[in-house]
Inverse folding.
């Protein structure tokens, strides 16, 4: 009897528009969210049934696929990599900013919450940019900027007296302080890490006004100058050139210098 009562309560809860359904990882969506006019395709690895709803956190249905628009398409086997059987649920026409989850009445399961918002990617972009601060080598990182990852000591100051790399010409002792750690292993690479980072950061700065802010929370923030170029400070540029001088994957500019064809561009011409 007690069991039947509990079952009754459970069924009532499932039918109630105000009740939260279990969150399932069978609904794979962009947890960062979607900008209003972006394509919005969610991958189901369980059959979503005939309709999928977009709901607010209080479970108000604001859009139903495909009744209100969008499509549900069975895509079959996704191949040996996952062995999943997948369905694509496209709710692109829904473009009202807010916080939502998807709900499948057939599965009686819902997705994680996500946002539809013009700046849906703002936080992740800022976190990615801030990474370049945490990775700075040979400089203290006070808690005012680094929070729980602060480090009062400048790291790797022994790099001031770096000798030639193995199997490279001996060009003497070089000061290779500065630059960015590649990762938690503290290696510092020129070609794969620093050069690519400089290229991508400058491209973001050039193409996207959102990357021209002065409020990233780094020592150069709030000085009236966008933070992204300052992330690429002359110190980091000079580090790249110095490192190339001792033979590790020289940049194209330094290769041409080595052939006597041209001088490398001074850092001051790149960064002002
Ligand atoms: Ca600044
Ligand atoms: Zn370091």
């Amino acid at each position: 009897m007690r069991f039947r009562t509990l079952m009754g309560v459970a069924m009532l809860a499932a039918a109630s528009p105000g009740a939260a359904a279990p969150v399932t990882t069978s609904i794979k969506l962009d947890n960062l969210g979607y900008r209003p006019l972006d394509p919005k395709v969610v991958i189901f690895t369980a059959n979503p049934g005939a309709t999928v709803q977009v709901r607010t956190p209080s479970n108000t249905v604001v859009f139903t696929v495909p009744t209100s628009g969008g499509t549900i398409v069975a895509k079959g086997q996704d191949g040996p990599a996952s062995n999943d059987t997948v369905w694509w649920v496209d709710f692109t026409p829904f473009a009202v900013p807010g916080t939502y989850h998807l709900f499948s009445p057939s599965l009686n399961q819902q997705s994680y919450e996500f946002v539809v918002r013009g700046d849906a990617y703002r936080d992740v972009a800022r976190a990615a940019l801030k990474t370049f601060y945490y990775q700075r080598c040979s400089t203290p990182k006070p808690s005012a900027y680094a929070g729980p990852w602060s480090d009062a000591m400048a790291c790797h100051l022994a790099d001031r007296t770096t000798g030639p790399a193995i199997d490279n010409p001996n060009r003497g002792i070089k000061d290779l302080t500065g630059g960015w750690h590649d990762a938690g292993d503290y290696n510092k690479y020129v070609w794969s890490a620093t050069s690519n980072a400089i290229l991508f950061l400058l491209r973001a700065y050039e193409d996207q006004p959102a990357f021209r802010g002065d409020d990233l929370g780094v020592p150069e923030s709030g000085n009236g100058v966008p933070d992204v170029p300052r992330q690429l400070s002359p110190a980091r540029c000079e580090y790249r050139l110095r490192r190339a001088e001792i033979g590790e994957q020289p940049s194209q500019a330094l290769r041409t210098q080595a052939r006597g064809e041209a001088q490398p561009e001074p850092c001051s011409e790149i960064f002002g």
Notes: The chain has eight helices and nine strands.
